[in-house]
Amino acid sequence: MISSKSGTDGKCDCIVTVEPAESVTLEYVSKNSSIYAKRTEDLVRRTALRYGLNGIKVKIEDFGALGFVIQARLETAIERALGGAAR
Amino acid sequence: MNFVRPRRSMLYMPGNNPNMLQNCCCLGADGLLLDLEDAVSPDCKDEARRLLTYFMRNLDFGNTEVTVRINGTDTPWWRDDLKEIIPARPHAVRLPKCEDPADIRELDSAISEIETAEGIPSGSIEIHAMIETAAAVERASEIARACPRVSAITLGGQDLAADIGVRRSKEGVEILYARSRVVIAARAAGIACFDTVFTDINDAEGLYKEASLAAQLGFTGKAAIHPSQVRVINEAFRPEERAIRHAEKVVAAAKEAKIKSIGVYAVDGNMVDGPVVRQALAVLAQAGISCDPTEVL
């Protein structure tokens, strides 16, 4: 696994950065961090599990993205980090 | 209920822009063209595909026709486009720069494989083929009939002008022959046809003139590249009042005939059959008047 990212800083989008780590961690940056942080952490943990990743460091800069947009960007970042491996 | 959709305006939406995508359903377009080709840079194709699949699965598009413009069969991306997009079940896939019926058949075969693997009814996802070169214009009829999945052909005026070696003008004289050729090829094959985009987003009058010409030539609808163009195109493609009134009479007669199980009937002295009723439904749909075909056919 290598470091990788997906998404843009455009309105309603997010930038997801992933890199190898010992455990699953999330740094969530948003104007509404306290409201959406928990939801996003659940999403990250579920997704890491689905990809069989025990450790991954995820940073999400949220510019007002819907939940499924974050999901899509996260999946792309992970797949790029894994070298294009399928879900 | 399976209402006949109006198909006047087909609005392009960049496939990697969540802000535009999440608002696309309320812009009044009859159809959306979610773009993975020109609007997405090569290094963003993968994230755009994934984003589009999530939008298609999560947004309620209502009666709006959803088409995804994939990358051409001469690129390394089109098969991956299909693998992601087809399981999300768009109404159609738009193939750019189609020059040869063999391109269509290759696409048809690739879609069929995914439909089978995903348990999607065979042939349910349609193909719209883009005619964008002189060679493609010459083969428009063959392309329109390449396989049953082809439900529309569509003119790409910018690329065509470049291929012919002319500059696009607002009058569009340079692509008039191609426009007519595409319409005739589509109508002879019994499928729809969509006109090219009008690129000056600040010229509503010019757009109305061009869309009116397209409607007069026989196009089903026209592509839009900006939300502000949708209303203008819809207005230009709205059928004449007289045609709408006649279609309403045909549909009313068809409803009554169906209730009374009458097989043969006339409207204004002309016999009415299935194709006449279907044409009336299409006229009403273009006028934005919904009608359930199961009530009349």
Structure, described:
The complex is a heterodimer of chains A (87) and B (297). Chain A contains two helices and four strands. Chain A is an alpha+beta fold and 87 residues long. Chain A has one domain. In chain A, strands 1-2-4-3 form a four-stranded mixed β-sheet. The model of chain A has no long low-confidence stretch (mean pLDDT 91). With 297 residues, chain B is of the alpha/beta class. Chain B has two domains: 9-236, TIM Barrel (Alpha-Beta Barrel); 241-295. Chain B contains twelve helices and ten strands. Chain B has an eight-stranded parallel β-barrel with strand order 1-2-3-4-5-6-7-8, surrounded by four helices. Chain B has a two-stranded antiparallel ribbon with strand order 9-10. In chain B, helix 2 (45-58) runs parallel beside helix 3 (78-85), helix 9 runs parallel beside helix 10 (228-236) and helix 11 packs across helix 12. Chain B starts with 8 loop residues before the first strand and ends in an 11-residue tail after the last helix. The model of chain B has no long low-confidence stretch (mean pLDDT 93). The interface between A and B is medium-sized, with 19 and 14 residues.
With helices defined by DSSP (H or I, 4 residues minimum), what is the helix count of chain A? 2
The helix content of chain A, as a percent range, equals 25-40%
Strand order of the largest sheet of chain A: 1-2-4-3
Rg measurement of chain A, Å: 12 Å
* Poorly predicted residue ranges of chain B: none
Task: Quickly give the structural class of chain A.
Answer: alpha+beta
Number of domains of chain A: 1
Main sheet characteristics of chain A = 4 strands, mixed
- Strand/helix succession of chain A: EEEHEH
Mean pLDDT across all residues of chain A, rounded?
Answer: 91
- The strands making up the biggest β-sheet of chain B line up spatially as 1-2-3-4-5-6-7-8
How many distinct folded domains of chain B?
2
In terms of DSSP E residues, the strand content of chain B is 15-25%
